[in-house]
Amino acid sequence: MEYEAVIGLETHCQLKTKSKMFCGCANEFGADPNTNVCPVCLGMPGVLPVPNELALQLTALTGYLLNCEVPNFAKFDRKNYFYPDVCKDYQITQFDFPSTTTGYVDFEFGSKIERVRITRAHLEEDVGKNNHFDQHSGVDFNRAGVPLLEIVSEPDISSADMAYDYLNALKDILIYGGISDCDMEKGMVRCDVNISVRPKGATDLGTKIEIKNMNTFSGVRRAINYEVPRQIDTLESGGSLVQETRRWDDDAGITETMRSKEHAHDYRYFPEPDIMPLRPSEEWLAEGRSHIVELPLARKQRFIMDYSIPAQDAEVLVGNMTLGAFFEKSVDGSKNAKAVANWVINNLQARLVEAECTIDELKFGPEAIRELVDIIDCGAISNKGGQEVFTELFNSGGSPKDIVDARGLAQVSDSGELDKWCRDAIDTNPGPADDVRNGKENAINFLKGQVMKASRGKANPQIVGEKLLKLLKG
């Protein structure tokens, strides 16, 4: 029997706020353990939580970016469970009335545009972090209370690769919208994967198994690629699957049972009594809609259409938001968008990585790239000279034209000088010259090299080639 996978993802991302969800403690990564805490985020008796308005705004904006409904009523609830990193023995979250519902994400998967539906995106507080040492364990509550957005997809995903591409598309949307930095190394994005398998063509869902708390997209892909065959093998060998929660062991490359899967009633959800329901006004919602930005997929398609650059170049530029913005400013007014893209991708990006700096730290503006491309295109300097100009630009700033003049990099196009160099090359190299006369035009490259050597690289190679052919063939 042939089986198919049915996969849904729950993606948790920390919101880009300076303070926590319900108190004024700093939302800061890397501080000493238990230094960014207060009675509110530690759940001391008598304290009252106050919602972070920016977190509410970012949640609504996320809803718009994910094509969701943003209702004019939502509320917070208590999710009750005991675990060492939950200092209150409950988590403030949203249960039956979340801040956003029913949307979708369109993304590229292979040669097609796929759509994964979004069930909801609800706001909650993060929990602390358990740290395990040789002889003891500890809990760092600096993360407790950090605003966390949980984006729940419908089970529309059918493979590990599709899940991977969906997660990357979702991450790009959140970064573009200023919702989250999505820094995986800082634990800003974590994923739970819900997987079931069923006979191909069946409509009923199989037994759902959840894999918890994965902090890399590659880990999600590997876990799915392990878990789907495991479930199929179990069924084909006559066994049965039980609804459970499993963990991913990245080193061993396997999933392991953690506990039987809880149901909603196990958490005894009830409305958070200390926070009033949320009833955003139409003006407040309209303000959120005013911050909608162009999404990565739309930007990529526009780059391809407007600038006639290859899809691969557009993907690189869209994959780095600041690099893409720099390209757009550089290409404004240019007649050679492809060349501008090449310089931004193959030269600027490489130098930024090598120098470990950002675009904001550059010593020149985007107009310098446009000017450099124009100088090369008009034949004033060679591509090799352009590399020298770019190196000086990157190291010291300035204007490409001024650098060309100061370094004497301008190509020689004067007919008299070029004529002398070409005649000298022909006279001193009769063999290659005769080869060209006899139809072996590839031999002209040797003569061009001699001219470039005599001119110290300043001769315009295109004009040199034309002049040599004219002198040799008349």
Task: Provide structural commentary.
It is built from 15 helices and 13 strands. It folds into three domains: 10-187 and 246-288, no CATH class; 296-407, no CATH class; 415-473, Arc Repressor Mutant, subunit A. With 474 residues, the chain is an alpha+beta fold. An eight-stranded mixed β-sheet has the order 4-5-8-1-9-10-11-12. A three-stranded antiparallel β-sheet has the order 3-2-13, with no helix packed on it. It has a two-stranded antiparallel sheet with strand order 6-7. Helix 7 crosses helix 9 (366-377) and helix 14 crosses helix 15. The termini are far apart.
Question: What strand order characterises the main sheet?
Answer: 4-5-8-1-9-10-11-12
The major beta sheet can be summarized as: 8 strands, mixed
DSSP helix fraction: 25-40%
Number of helices: 15
Low-confidence stretches: none
Shape: elongated
Separation, N- and C-terminal Cα atoms? 76 Å
The string of secondary-structure elements, in order, is EHEEEEEEEHEEHEEEHHHHHHHHHHHH
* Percent of residues in beta strands: 15-25%
| Class based on secondary structure composition and strand pairing | alpha+beta
Short description:
The chain has 474 residues and is of the alpha+beta class. It is built from 15 helices and 13 strands.
Write the layout of secondary structure elements.
Layout lengths: L2 E12 L38 H13 L11 E4 L9 E4 L6 E10 L2 E14 L3 E4 L4 E4 L6 E7 L6 H17 L12 E11 L9 E6 L2 H20 L7 E6 L4 E7 L9 E2 L10 H8 L6 H12 L3 H9 L1 H11 L5 H19 L10 H12 L5 H14 L3 H8 L7 H14 L1 H8 L6 H11 L6 H13 L1
Parallel strand pairs: 10-11
Antiparallel strand pairs: 1-8, 1-9, 2-3, 2-13, 4-5, 5-8, 6-7, 9-10, 11-12
Helix pairs in contact: 2-3, 5-6, 6-7, 7-8, 7-9, 9-10, 12-14, 12-15, 14-15
